[in-house]
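Hi all, long-time lurker, first post. I run a small reading group and we've been trying to get comfortable going from sequence to structure in the token notation. Rather than ask abstract questions, I figured I'd post a concrete chain and ask someone more experienced to write out its structure so we can walk through it together at our next meeting. Sequence below, copied exactly:
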Amino acid sequence: MDKEGNFSENLLKWYDRNARALAWRVPPNSNKVSNPYFVWLSEIMLQQTTVVTVQPYFDKFLSKWPTIYDLALANDQDVMASWAGLGYYARARNLLKCARTVVREFDGKFPTCYNQLIKLPGIGPYTASAILSIAFSKSYAVLDGNVERVMSRYYHISDPLPSSKEFLQSLAQANLSSLRPGDYNQAVMDLGATICTPRKPQCVKCPVNLSCKANEIGDPEALPKKLQKKAKPLKFGSVFIGFNEKSGYLLERREGKGLLGGMLSWPSTDWSGCLNIKPPISADWIPVLGSVKHTFTHFNLELRVFKATIRNSQKPYFFVSFESFNVNDLPTVMRKAYALYLMSIK
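-- Answer (accepted) --
Happy to help. Here is the structure in token form:
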């Protein structure tokens, strides 16, 4: 039950009893110290991605690269393959760049200065604040979707996102516990993830419900308000699944920059507003019934799938033997194409 006007105190009391058990997290009041490598790795993975999705990837990465020194020495393609399916692949590329920079320039130790930390590849204001508060107990409040929702409702902020972000950040900072900044940040995120949810928030269970303005007014689901998003454009393309009975599947490694950069992939056309079915390599291509639909951050994609027997590989394409091929090394959209192909040969 909320003691009016004491947001952080009541929140932390609730967190001490209800903190989620997560592999990268130190439980409250455990007298253990957070591992900065664990905090950084988890926060990069959690960008635009749910906890449930991240947990097995986090465990997999730690089993392969238990320290930042191990990750800095990792093979780029091994890391990209291990990231496959998690999406937003620029994060994986920046993960490697950041690990190597921290090892090379900071002897494997994350800097504890905000201005230094935020200059590292892939680290923005949110991730820097999370690392500094959780790993080093520095007074930096985080602002993610959960925190935005909690602050918007608690103070009944009607200005829409993203224009209200700066003000919501100031409210999060004003409530930050100087004694337990890391626990406070994790507590607000847990509250947003488990109680103050986007739909059907459980206000009766909320530890700060008595002083929550949205609960008092009775419209928590109406907040936070957001500007209407533009409809995503639809793009089209084609992928070509080639195979050879002796050599295996024909694949390519996408260029290091851009969408799906550095990932293993089926050969494909460009993706645009017009369907392109021109194959990148000559063969007797047969269209597969159906299409693949996939959503990216800025557009929706519809892919046609073609299959053919390939005699010889041509650069930049190469064969991967059937024994060595692992569909989980492919990004999700290419896994979908493979699933459609498999249906066509049953």
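A couple of things your group might point at:
Residues 128 and 316 are 38 Å apart (CA to CA).
The chain has a mean pLDDT of 95.
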